[in-house]
């Protein structure tokens, strides 16, 4: 069962490229599991408005801060520092919940940094992210990863439509880069195939009720 014997909740990271449907899946799982009586806590990364590192990363991806965005490792460091600042909150959430659902987590940094560096899931960037975030920053390793299986074209179309419909969510540099999105998608699929750090589930964002139940009993 998802509730562990020692009373610490299960940590689940939802991953996928921009527009894949992560927030939609997190919302669907949360309401389903809460209806089933589970205590569910959700968190989303980057923590815009809460973390100066997350805000600077977003500003850089929208054209500010000179050439900061041109460094894949500098951008990844900002996202990692955002998470490092949330480590205590994640641990507290785990202590008080059956499930902690994260909308993006360390695997986002692994996939985007590797893709930006032209590497695959076995390259130096993925290793560096794991060492930095799980060892140096001592962030908890997820018990499960959920990867949303959606064609990159579909996800990119949704991200574009969202940007057009909502001027406060104009697409950033990563969302406008179709090649990057394809490369990130490929790295994510390798991470899933290799069960990077924990079991990975590859799911449709149209959450099948049976799958949510399977996850609950996994
Ligand atoms: N399965 C789906 N079918 C159609 N549209 C979807 C689906 N999942 C998400 N969307 C829509 O696509 C957009 C991106 O979804 P969202 O969950 O915000 O993605 P992400 O968090 O991965 O960027 C939103 O406008 C959402 O309503
Ligand atoms: C959390 C995180 C995001 N990213 C990237 C993925 C996205 O392209 C971008 C912004 O995150 P995203 O979750 O897509 O935010 P938004 O609400 O602005 O769409 O940052 C990383 O490269 N590393 C990370 O650790």
Automatic annotation (TrEMBL):
Reaction(s) catalysed by this chain, per the record, are: dTMP + ATP = dTDP + ADP
Q: For the Thymidylate kinase-like domain, which residue ranges apply?
A: 14-196
* EC number of this enzyme: 2.7.4.9
Q: Which EC class, in a word?
A: transferase
Establish whether keyword Signal is in the entry.
no
Q: Which domain of life is it from?
A: Bacteria
Per the UniProt entry, the signal peptide is none
Q: Name one GO molecular function term.
A: kinase activity
Q: Which CDD domains match?
A: TMPK (cd01672)
Q: Which Pfam families match?
A: Thymidylate_kin (PF02223)
Name the UniProt key words of this record, in alphabetical order.
Answer: ATP-binding, Kinase, Nucleotide biosynthesis, Nucleotide-binding, Transferase
Query: InterPro entries under this entry?
Result: P-loop_NTPase, Thymidylate_kin-like_dom, Thymidylate_kin_CS, Thymidylate_kinase
User: According to its UniProt entry, what is the function of this protein?
Assistant: Phosphorylation of dTMP to form dTDP in both de novo and salvage pathways of dTTP synthesis.
Sequence similarity: Belongs to the thymidylate kinase family.
Q: What is this protein called?
A: Thymidylate kinase
Its source organism is: Williamsia maris
Gene this chain is encoded by: tmk
């Amino acid at each position: 069962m998802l509730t562990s014997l020692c009373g610490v909740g299960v940590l689940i990271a939802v991953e996928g490229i921009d527009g894949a449907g992560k927030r939609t899946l997190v919302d669907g799982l949360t309401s389903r599991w809460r209806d089933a009586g589970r205590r569910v806590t959700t968190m989303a990364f980057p923590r815009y408005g809460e973390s100066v590192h997350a805000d600077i990363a977003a500003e850089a991806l929208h054209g500010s801060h000179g050439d900061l965005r041109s460094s894949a490792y500098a951008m990844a460091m900002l996202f990692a520092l955002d998470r490092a600042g949330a480590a205590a909150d994640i641990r507290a959430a785990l202590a008080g919940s059956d499930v902690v659902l994260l909308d993006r987590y360390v695997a986002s940094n692994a996939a985007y940094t590797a893709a930006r560096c032209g590497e695959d899931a076995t390259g130096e960037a993925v290793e560096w992210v794991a060492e930095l975030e799980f060892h140096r920053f001592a962030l908890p390793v997820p018990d499960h990863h959920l990867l949303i299986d959606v064609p990159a074209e579909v996800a990119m179309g949704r991200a574009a439509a969202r940007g057009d419909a909502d001027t406060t969510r104009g697409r950033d540099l990563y969302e406008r880069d179709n090649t990057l999105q394809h490369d990130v998608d490929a790295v994510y699929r390798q991470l899933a195939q290799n069960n990077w750090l924990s079991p990975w589930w590859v799911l449709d964002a149209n959450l099948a009720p049976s799958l949510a139940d399977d996850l609950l009993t996994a």
